[in-house]
Write a structure and sequence with these properties.
heterodimer; A: alpha+beta; 6 strands; rod-shaped; B: alpha+beta; ten-stranded antiparallel β-sheet
Chain lengths: 221, 454
């Protein structure tokens, strides 16, 4: 076949057509695979990022629940002492354990990838600790605790905020730090307690002085 | 033929070969396009099941927030006093056949046959406020205003326009409330009706169970402008149905329970998750929010065709001779055919139900250590360790399908996926039905609001 002949030109066109068709098919397949893997990857990444923020915030609630077992010390932290700022917060830098050159999750454990903040607990009230012998003079105190975790640069696109009530006690009626400066101390007449409930709470402080800290009204904001 | 041209036969053969090649390429192209569509379908199914499960899990984690009894926070059967949902054939939420949910427009939305319904309650989608002795609603009986302060006298901040704009959030959330479209407000005290459930020496600390009442809200709140939820009707039969310890009991008798002081209050959500089968080709995971005797229903995720739910109850059914021990575990020893150390594939083999065929749905009373007291709430005189919560966790499974059928797909899931105790006849579709690609996802959630402490 001579170059430039009609048949030669036809063969060349057929080859071109074949190449174009092959390219089109491979492009479609490639796009499909890219779409699928991209969607799965994006979904998994978002889920992972949200879970990470969620569990970091949850850790903040649990940390505060533990810290409130010594409420006088926790509530007297310097971050909570500015009377003009009821939203003072303890900041806890956490690594995000991103992927690094060493493989999966091998990023710098010292870098701050997530910022966890635990706000100053808000006093919600208290209830008396009643024993079989009657009122003990001790109280269970209820605080609202808020924890927020957010990714920081370079990937700040996720955050989670959790709120929970933490009840701690029994504690004395005037333990230091329970009531913020300038706020009212819940007096006996203001105790948030119904008389009828005394009748069914004979065991609320038995065994005597058993200390506990429990969380409830746990909510995601 | 002169001049070096081709014979007719050569041209015909060349055309034939060329045609065959073209058909082959077009077929290949078609396969590529179909593969693209299938993968998009799979990605859609995967996204639906992920998103749907995330939404359900987020709400379920908050069940009971505000102070509800465990028996009122998670329901396994419809509350007969409230209406809006029916669940034949057994009047429970396990494998409903022929069930319906009444939406705001009065339409009965069909629940996809053989799927479960999940109903949870709590202050879930809007903030929970704190109170002091200068706010609240007095004894919170009859019809009363519920007043809230931006900051309580104890220093707790309920609302701050910059840092904590909760009043405007509640006002916005209740915008749709009206007499014909009422909402509910949960008002809780600060006592502990089940104080004996905690035994610190045995390291079991349950959260306090406060006395609470519920009011009917028939107008948007006005917290930002006037610091009030507005008038709440605590005697409304709708509201009183939420205050019995057993939701199957008739509504608590009038007058409603009096509170001596309010510690917590917020808008109570009664949330229903179900598979809306209005379009059987495209069933959807739907969420319903109770508004009186109807539900405000929205689709959460498309093409979700099954929802299955199992509950973990410490002690299983209580009366089966399996005492609560504070742990979730197997009740039968592992075997070669049932080797998992934590869960069993044999009916009654662990404390999860109903995730195996033949396991019955839990009764509300199974969620507590003793039969809840009858209407009227005579806790006085009852042992304080009588009604301890036993419900520990929930397992939720979703199955989503691709939006369009895939006639050539031959995978094992092409005619359906069974999960937990879903009925075979409802979930495995006949061989002459359309084939779909499917994805399934399961999550386990530990309840946070009535157990656990340090």
């Amino acid at each position: 076949m001579r170059p430039g002949s009609p048949i030669g030109r036809a063969n060349g066109q057929a080859s071109l057509l074949t190449a174009i068709l092959m390219l089109a098919v491979l492009t479609v397949v490639g796009i499909a695979l890219e779409f699928t893997t991209g969607a799965h990857r994006a979904g998994a990444a978002t889920e992972w990022a949200l879970s990470r923020a969620y569990y970091a915030a949850d850790a903040g609630i649990r940390w505060a629940t533990v810290e409130l077992r010594d409420p006088a010390a926790f509530l007297s932290r310097p971050e909570f002492q500015d009377p003009s700022n009821p939203f003072g917060a303890v900041a806890v830098p956490l690594p995000s354990h991103d992927h690094g050159s060493g493989g999966l999750f091998s990023g710098d454990p010292q870098e701050e990838g997530i910022r966890l903040t635990v706000q100053k607990p808000g006093l919600l009230g208290r209830r008396p600790c009643v024993t079989d012998a009657g009122e003990s003079g001790l109280f269970f105190y209820l605080f609202e605790v808020r924890a927020r975790a957010a990714g920081i640069a370079p990937a700040p696109g996720y955050a989670a905020e959790l709120v929970a009530d933490v009840e701690v006690g029994p504690l004395s009626a005037d333990f230091p730090g329970a009531v913020p400066p300038g706020a009212e101390v819940p007096s006996a007449s203001q105790d948030i307690i119904g008389t009828r409930s005394f009748e069914s709470k004979e065991a609320s402080c038995e065994p005597a002085r058993a200390f506990r800290s429990v969380s409830m009204n746990w909510r995601e904001r | 033929m002169g001049g070096g041209g081709f014979a007719l036969l050569e041209v015909v053969v060349a055309a034939l070969v060329g045609g065959l090649l073209l058909v082959g390429f077009l077929s290949f192209l078609d396969s590529g396009a179909r593969l693209n569509k299938e993968e998009i379908g799979v990605a859609d199914a995967q996204a639906s099941v992920r998103y749907g499960l995330a939404q359900v899990v987020r709400a379920v984690r908050m069940a009971g927030a505000g102070g509800l009894f465990v028996t009122q926070a998670v329901l396994t059967r419809p509350d007969p006093d409230l209406g809006g949902v029916n669940a034949p054939p057994d009047d429970d939420y396990d494998n409903v056949m022929g069930g319906t949910v009444l939406d705001l427009s009065g339409r009965s939305l069909p629940v996809r046959p053989g799927t479960d319904v999940l109903e949870i309650r709590g202050v879930i989608f809007s903030p929970l406020l704190g109170f002091d002795d200068q706010s609240g609603c007095g004894s919170c009986t009859g019809i009363a205003d519920l007043m809230a302060r931006a900051a309580t006298s104890y220093g707790h901040v309920n609302d701050d326009p910059t840092n904590r704009p909760q009043f405007s959030e509640i006002d916005s959330y209740t915008q749709g409330a009206s007499d014909g479209n009422p909402m509910l407000v949960l008002v809780a005290g600060g006592d502990d009706l089940h104080a004996g459930c905690s035994d610190p020496t045995a390291k079991t600390s349950h959260t306090p169970q406060p006395t609470y009442t519920v009011g009917r809200l028939a107008a948007p709140t006005s917290l930002s402008a006037a610091g009030t939820f507005g008038r709440l009707d605590f005697e409304s039969p709708l509201a009183r149905a939420f205050t019995t310890e057993n939701p199957r009991d008739p509504a608590a008798p009038e007058p409603s329970r009096a509170l001596t002081a309010v510690r917590r209050a917020g808008v109570l959500d009664d949330v229903l998750y179900f598979i809306d089968d209005s379009d059987p080709w495209h069933p959807a995971l739907a969420r319903g929010l109770r508004r009186g005797g109807r539900f405000d229903v929205v689709a959460v995720a498309d093409d979700v065709e099954d929802l299955q739910v199992a509950y973990a109850v410490d002690g299983l059914y209580g009366l089966d001779g399996v005492p609560p021990d504070g742990r979730l575990e197997r009740l039968l020893a592992p075997t070669l055919r049932d080797p998992d150390p934590d869960t069993s594939t044999i009916s009654g083999g662990d404390e999860w139900a109903p995730n195996i065929e033949e396991e019955r749905a839990f009764e509300p009373t199974d969620f507590q250590s003793a039969e809840p007291p009858p209407p009227g709430f005579p806790h006085v005189g009852a042992a304080s360790d009588a009604h301890c919560p036993l419900l520990r966790a929930i397992m939720i499974s979703l199955v989503a399908k691709s939006p369009d059928p895939d006639p050539v797909y031959r995978g094992a899931d092409s005619f359906g996926v069974r999960t937990m105790n879903s009925p075979r006849e409802a979930r495995i579709y006949p061989s002459d039905s359309a084939r779909f690609r499917r994805r399934s996802l399961t999550a386990v959630v530990n309840f946070r609001n009535w157990s656990g402490g340090l």
